[in-house]
């Protein structure tokens, strides 16, 4: 059974050629690929954060089995190691490209859009072939696919033909000739491999992207993915290009810290990307057509009884880290004053963090991930709602108040996904 050489074998080859990538690239590997292609594919697979979704908790990397929670039920990710029976070892390059660009499996079956082929369709064929070449170097793992937890008729894949007609537009990325090369590189990454819109674009009732609110923020498994538009209150309007790069590279900046699903993205993906690519993504996010402005609500007055109750809870439980003026400690405890997540319309992340706690991403350049303790044992729904109403309307913030019923409802839906890598 022939497949590409393992990365260990490649490393040995480098040693034998004096460490020269160019020298090894002239040597045909077992499946006809070369080291340069494989190295490129490894970088692109990292940029696409393939390992996060295709690795089950405690499982072998890329062997699948992780449950992706959707509003319609759980969908389990497949094995993408080169095992020929349960993975993609028997797939051709054309079959792999078809799955990525068109959402069609090896045997012609339609793939659920929990797999972000609506974004991967923009990735160039050569880049997808390189990713396949890299995946073929992994150790094969036998891992049978788990049955998805979708009710009838959603478990019938032919229904996806209608979904694709409504919400899927195939086609590789086309650069904008009026924009810079850097802008277009950032657009290619954000709109394609990085599939930022999979989380940061709100969905309609059928799970399709709301095309008029691209990157305007969304909710995934009771985590709020914030607005990546230019809104000063709820988006990236107050962030510089350098702020975005620092956040993606280190998992934090002077304004915020990555936790939950975003901590995984930083840990497995963006911290390993080149500074040039991170800057390109930041340039694109800052220069792209802005999302529609979100009118700021009238803040809840400080004299309101709920605000007074929330202030008391804040002073007793939060001010030691986030300080009395809500500005936190830069690159350690996030700034609550002016925070887009704090002022977002959706409050899932805020409830989750107070109830379950969380830990910020730990990266090579910022190896200590600050933690937020859980307060579910201490604060009831009324106290949590008062606290969140307070931080959403103090220090110049403005956002709708949070009710005890909202907290109770979200608390009841939470799964144990607060832990970070």
Question: What does this 3D model show about the protein?
Answer:
- The chain is mostly helical and about 425 residues long.
- It folds into three domains: about 5-140 and about 155-165; about 185-285; about 305-365 and about 370-415, Cytochrome Bc1 Complex, Chain D, domain 2 (Orthogonal Bundle), CATH 1.10.760.
- It has 19 helices and six strands.
- The chain has helices at about 5-15, 20-25, 35-45, 50-55, 95-100, 115-120, 125-135, 160-165, 180-195, 195-200, 240-250, 260-270, 275-285, 305-315, 320, 340-345, 350-355, 380-390, 405-415, and strands spanning about 65-70, 75, 220, 225, 360, 370.
- The strands form three sheets. It has a two-stranded antiparallel ribbon with strand order 1-2.
- A hairpin with a 2-residue loop joins β3 (about 220) and β4.
- The radius of gyration is 23 Å and the shape is globular.
- The two termini are about 35 Å apart.
- The model is unreliable at about 1-30 (pLDDT under 50).
- Its main location: membrane.
- Its cofactor is heme c.
- It holds the Pfam family Cytochrom_C.
Tally the helices: 19
Distance between the termini: 35 Å
Strand order of the largest sheet: 1-2
Form type? globular
**Quantity of strands, as a count:** 6
Mean pLDDT: 89
Biggest sheet character = 2 strands, antiparallel
- How many separate domains? 3
Our estimate of the beta-strand percent is under 5%
Fraction of residues in helix = 25-40%
Q: Uncertain spans, ≥5 residues at pLDDT below 50?
A: 1-28
The ordered H/E elements are HHHHEEHHHHHHEEHHHHHHHEEHH
Cα Rg:
23 Å
> Pairing-aware structural class of the strands and helices?
mainly alpha
């Amino acid at each position: 059974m022939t497949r590409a050489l393992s990365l260990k074998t490649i490393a040995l080859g480098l040693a034998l050629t004096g460490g020269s990538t160019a020298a090894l690239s002239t040597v045909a590997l077992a499946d006809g690929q070369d080291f340069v292609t494989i190295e490129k594919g490894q970088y692109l697979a990292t940029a696409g954060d393939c390992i996060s979704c295709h690795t089950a908790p405690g499982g072998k990397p890329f062997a699948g089995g992780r449950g992706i929670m959707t509003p319609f039920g759980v969908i389990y990710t497949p094995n993408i190691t080169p095992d020929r029976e349960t993975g993609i070892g028997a797939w051709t390059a054309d079959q792999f490209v078809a799955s990525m660009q068109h959402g069609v499996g090896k045997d012609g079956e339609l793939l659920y859009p929990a797999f972000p082929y609506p974004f991967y369709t923009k990735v160039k064929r050569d880049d997808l072939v390189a990713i396949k070449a890299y995946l073929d170097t992994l150790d094969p793992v036998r891992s049978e696919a788990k049955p998805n937890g979708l009710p009838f008729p959603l478990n019938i894949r032919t229904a996806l033909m209608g979904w694709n007609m409504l919400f899927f537009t195939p086609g590789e990325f086309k650069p904008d000739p009026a924009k810079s090369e850097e802008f277009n590189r950032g657009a290619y990454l954000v709109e394609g491999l990085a599939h930022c819109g999979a989380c940061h674009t709100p969905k309609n009732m059928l799970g399709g992207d709301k095309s008029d609110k691209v990157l305007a923020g969304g909710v995934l498994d009771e985590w709020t993915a914030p607005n990546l538009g230019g809104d000063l209150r709820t988006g990236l309007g107050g962030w510089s290009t350098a702020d975005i790069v620092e956040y993606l590279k280190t998992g934090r900046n002077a304004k915020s810290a990555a936790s939950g699903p975003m901590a995984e993205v930083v840990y497995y993906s963006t911290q390993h990307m080149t500074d040039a690519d991170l800057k390109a993504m930041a340039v694109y996010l800052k220069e792209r057509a802005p999302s529609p402005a979100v009118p700021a609500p009238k803040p809840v007055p400080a004299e309101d009884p709920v605000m007074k109750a929330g202030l008391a809870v804040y002073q007793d439980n939060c001010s030691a880290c986030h300080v009395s003026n809500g500005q936190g400690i830069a690159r350690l405890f996030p700034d609550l004053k002016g925070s887009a997540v704090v002022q977002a319309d959706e409050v899932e992340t805020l409830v989750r963090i107070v109830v379950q706690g969380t830990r910020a991403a730990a990266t090579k350049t910022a190896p200590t991930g600050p933690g937020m303790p859980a307060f579910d044992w201490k604060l009831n729904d009324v106290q949590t709602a008062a606290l969140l109403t307070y931080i959403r309307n103090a220090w110049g913030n403005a956002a709708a108040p949070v009710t005890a019923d909202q907290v109770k409802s979200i608390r009841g839906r939470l799964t144990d996904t607060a832990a970070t890598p």
